[in-house]
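User: Please fill in residues for this 392-position structure.
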């Protein structure tokens, strides 16, 4: 017997019935469908034919030919095997729309989810009345003035006027006292030329701290004091004419030299007969007309024999200064020159000779500082003595 004759016939399967439609939606079609096959069993060689019979098929005798189509009929007669039903596949959720990244600095004006409607402001109506921006509170009425309050205000006013009047009176009285003291000192200083010791009016040594060029210290030593004299013999005629409105009582003079004996200076004090008004008028004239800077109004020198100032004459005058006092009837002056007796052709006022930009001989030698320094210190001593004399 051949191998094909011993194999059992291959049953035929009926076609699969269509699946009922799903209520939840169309079912997803399977990608592949596999039909379950029936296993093939080889019959034993020594088994009797009765063992190969089955319930629906007649036994086949060994060596009997197999009819064509018998295997297909048996397959068709076999019951169909139904595959298990697949659960319904839920629908795939919709993919969210792709988002686009905003550029840097862009502002997203899209309202957020769940936001209400945007607020729309309507323009004001033309006929609508304007709402006031400020409200004024009604003020509380002021009660009528009380008589006691009025009396208190009047008392305060009277007291204030009294205090003001007392202050004014005090200032007037103090001013009058100061004026009286000033007049007393002014009058008393007129006689200082004969009541004050000469060493007080013209000290033997004058210390000039910071009185030299660049703030250097200076020391001046007195060479001699001239006898008191009238103004005609000690002043230039033109300067005497300029001082004529205040008169002349007495003229005092002294000559000093510096620590190096290279310069000499004559300082003088002219006591006048004028009152404070006349002295003030003369002072204003000297300032306004610049009389103190005129070379034809230079004071004269006082030469001292047998000293470094022996040749100190009119031709040796290099720098000078003149001060008209207003608090005392005195005119103080000073004139300086070289101690070697040299002639000076370009004399210069002390106020100009002390300037750094000056190039004259007097300015380069510091003679302006000599005249100005000695005159200022003699003037201070005079004021101090006048004040001490005026006090009781």
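Assistant: Residues filled in for all 392 positions:
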């Amino acid at each position: 017997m051949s191998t094909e004759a011993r194999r059992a016939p291959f049953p035929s399967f009926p076609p699969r019935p269509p699946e009922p439609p799903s209520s939840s939606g169309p079912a997803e079609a399977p990608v592949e469908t596999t039909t379950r096959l029936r296993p093939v069993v080889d019959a034993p060689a020594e088994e009797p034919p009765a063992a190969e019979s089955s319930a629906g098929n007649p036994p086949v005798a060994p060596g009997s030919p197999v009819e064509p189509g018998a295997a297909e009929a048996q397959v068709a007669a076999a019951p169909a095997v139904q595959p298990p039903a697949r659960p319904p596949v839920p629908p795939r959720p919709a993919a969210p729309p792709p988002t686009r990244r905003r550029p840097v600095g862009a502002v997203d004006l899209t309202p957020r989810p769940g936001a209400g409607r945007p607020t729309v402001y309507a323009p004001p109506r033309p006929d609508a009345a304007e709402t006031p921006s400020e409200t004024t509170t009604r003020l509380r009425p002021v009660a009528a003035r009380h008589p006691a309050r009025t009396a208190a205000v009047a008392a305060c006013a009277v007291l204030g006027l009294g205090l003001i009047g007392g202050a004014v009176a005090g200032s007037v009285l103090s001013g009058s006292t100061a004026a009286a003291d000033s007049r007393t000192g002014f009058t008393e200083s007129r006689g200082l030329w004969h009541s004050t010791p000469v060493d007080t009016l013209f000290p033997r040594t004058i210390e000039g701290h910071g009185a030299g060029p660049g703030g250097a210290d200076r020391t001046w030593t007195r060479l001699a004091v001239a006898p008191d004299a009238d103004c005609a013999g000690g002043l230039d005629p033109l300067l005497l004419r300029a001082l004529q409105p205040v008169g002349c009582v007495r003229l005092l003079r002294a000559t000093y030299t510096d620590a190096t004996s290279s310069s000499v200076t004559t300082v003088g004090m002219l006591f006048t007969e004028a009152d404070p008004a006349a002295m003030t008028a003369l002072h204003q004239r000297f300032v306004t007309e610049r009389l103190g800077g005129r070379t034809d109004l230079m004071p004269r020198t006082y030469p001292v024999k047998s000293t470094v100032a022996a040749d100190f004459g009119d031709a040796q005058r290099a720098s000078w200064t003149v001060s008209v006092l207003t608090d005392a009837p005195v005119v103080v002056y000073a004139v300086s020159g070289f101690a070697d007796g040299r002639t000076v052709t370009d004399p210069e006022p002390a106020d100009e000779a002390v300037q750094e930009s000056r190039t004259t001989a007097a300015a380069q030698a510091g003679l302006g500082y000599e005249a100005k320094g000695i005159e200022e210190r003699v003037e201070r001593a005079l004021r101090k003595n006048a004040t001490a004399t005026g006090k009781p």
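For context: The chain has a mean pLDDT of 76.
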